[in-house]
Amino acid sequence: MPDIDRRRAWLLTVDGAPQSYVDLDEPTHLEFEYARRLAHVLDTAADEAAPLDVLHLGGGALTLPRYVAATRPGSRQDVVEADRGLLALVAEHLPLPEGSGVTVHGADARAWLETAPAASADVLIADVFGGSRVPAHLTSAEYARAARRVLRPDGVYVANLADGAPFPFLRSQLATFAAVFPELALIAEPAVLRGRRFGNAVLVASGAEIDTARLARRAAGDAFPARVEAGASLVRLTGDARPVHDEDAVPSPVPPDGAFGIG
């Protein structure tokens, strides 16, 4: 069950797993490493402060929608979250400010995506976890094609994933999205990429060229530096993995105890 624990600000946990951290007085503060990496993609998706149309699959405590509203005023954002109890909890304890431009919808992410207007989003952020696992129906080529349909031609898809060496899930996701999007990049901590620990990896996909140099500077300059992989290094990481389809899709792996925390 969702639970909110007030410490320095607000920490949202679901079934004991940390999900979101929100500072209502400082919405640009991102506590989790993966959230900062998602934000690096948002920061480089357009000119500084330019408004964006953003679709968030997975709501949590609305950390990233608050970040976009603060850094890119005038943005239009839709948030799709299947857990209506969580939405009610967040609305009661962590209400969005007036004029945020954020609309929240209680619905399944895949079902919403398949009926959303074509070419309606500049950025699509997928941060959907059932407990601590990405649901299977959000990992397939059919899902990836639905995401590309909703994005504008130069739009960016970005997803929070998690895996550990030898990366069977992550490699399958790289193969799947490479079959749908011509441009891919991956942001992760070097220790995760070297297989030293289980952890988050942020997948970036687009129909247009990704500014990986700018993204790499942001990631490297973070308090918890990360590396950006693209091109040949990403092909090597993908190896012989094959695209996943609905009929053989599986959730992301169960993380080992203690894999996730505040960073």
Structure, described:
The chain has helices at about 35-45, 65-70, 85-95, 110-115, 140-150, 170-180, 190-195, 210-220, 230-240, and strands at about 1-5, 10-15, 15-20, 55, 75-80, 100-105, 120-125, 150-165, 185-190, 200-205, 225-230. It has nine helices and eleven strands. The protein is an alpha/beta fold and about 260 residues long. A hairpin with a 3-residue loop joins strand 1 (about 1-5) and strand 2 (about 10-15). The two termini are about 25 Å apart. Helix 1 (about 35-45) packs parallel to helix 2 (about 65-70) and helix 1 runs antiparallel to helix 8. The model has no long low-confidence stretch (mean pLDDT about 90). The radius of gyration is 17 Å and the shape is globular. The strands form two sheets. The chain has an eight-stranded mixed beta sheet with strand order 6-5-4-7-8-10-9-11, sandwiched between helices. Strands 1-2-3 form a three-stranded antiparallel beta sheet, with helices on one face. It has a single domain, classed as 3-Layer(aba) Sandwich (Rossmann fold).
Outline the secondary-structure elements.
Layout: E1 2-6, E2 10-14, E3 17-22, H1 33-44, E4 53-57, H2 63-71, E5 76-81, H3 84-93, E6 102-106, H4 109-115, E7 121-126, H5 141-150, E8 151-163, H6 168-178, E9 183-188, H7 190-193, E10 199-206, H8 212-220, E11 227-230, H9 232-238
Parallel strand pairs: 4-5, 4-7, 5-6, 7-8
Antiparallel strand pairs: 1-2, 2-3, 8-10, 9-10, 9-11
Helix pairs in contact: 1-2, 1-8
